[in-house]
Specification:
Layout: H1 16-22, E1 30-35, E2 39-44, H2 68-79
Antiparallel strand pairs: 1-2
Keywords: DNA-binding
Domain SpoVT-AbrB: 1-47
GO molecular function: DNA binding
């Protein structure tokens, strides 16, 4: 556990070990969720990436493409418990 002291201005300074543990650096942002019982949850805001960086992240090993109709049929069959494994 790391203990921090509140300044007269109502601020706290996170110690180096806390910053390193959370991967926080200069200019980074964090969100704090206020929770019941005088608790809070701190979350580091990740870097945003361009949408193009996600292209190709799900590989299709068969190389086969499927129509919307085929996809809908597979969904319906899965829901009905008739899907092939």
């Amino acid at each position: 556990m790391v203990r921090l002291k509140v300044s007269a201005e109502g601020q706290i300074t996170l110690k180096k070990e806390v910053l390193e543990h959370l991967g926080i650096g200069p200019g980074d942002e964090v969100d704090i969720d206020l929770m019941p019982s005088r608790r809070a949850s701190l979350r580091v805001i990740g870097e945003t990436r361009p949408i193009e960086s996600l292209f190709g992240m799900v590989k299709n090993p068969t190389g086969r493409t499927y129509t919307v109709e085929e996809i809908n049929e597979a969904i319906a069959a899965g829901y009905a418990g008739e899907a092939d494994d």
